[in-house]
Amino acid sequence: MTAADLEAARDRIVPDVVTGVLRVLFCGINPGLMTAATGHHFARPGNRFWPVLHLSGFTPRLLKPAEQEELLTYGLGITNVVARATARADELSAEEYREGGRMLAGKVERLRPRWLAVVGVTAYRAAFGERRAGIGPQERTIGGSRIWVLPNPSGLNAHWTAATMAEEFGRLRAASRTDTPQGLG
């Protein structure tokens, strides 16, 4: 993949990975250029989403970004707060985050996942105006869906290791198993 290929992917929209019955809908900040160029979520080398998903027990093996549709068989899906691809999340405006939060709320009301898992506390705060939100389960709900804020798996997030992220993802996995809708064991 060349720099020109990546730049050509700027502002592209990457389709969500969703189905009618989801235990957890993971929500990234917005697609990066590698994700937009490949059409696969969390595709940038160094992003720890896929390894952490496996380490936490959500998937029985380490999936590659190109295998993202397999998540649906585990009752998992992926979307983003902001649909537009950028090189960095700091290219997004405050209004894009707020509008993304409104659109995400509508999506969650339609899809009705058991949990919405936002990967990135800063994105959650900006999208939903929850300035004091922290990592973990939130008091806010959307329809019947509960919300859990997870650490951002970007390689730039040096405050969290893959192991400590996997622990937090694992807490969500355990919670999602105890209050699972019918049809998802």
Automatic annotation (TrEMBL):
One of its GO terms (molecular function) is DNA binding. It is an enzyme of class 3 (hydrolase). InterPro entries: MUG/TDG (IPR015637), Uracil-DNA_glycosylase-like (IPR005122), Uracil-DNA_glycosylase-like_sf (IPR036895). Keywords: Activator, Chromatin regulator, DNA damage, DNA repair, Glycosidase, Hydrolase, Isopeptide bond, Transcription, Transcription regulation, Ubl conjugation. Residues 15-176 form the Uracil-DNA glycosylase-like domain. Its EC number is 3.2.2.28. One of its GO terms (biological process) is epigenetic regulation of gene expression. This is G/U mismatch-specific DNA glycosylase. It comes from Streptomyces himalayensis subsp. aureolus. The gene is mug.
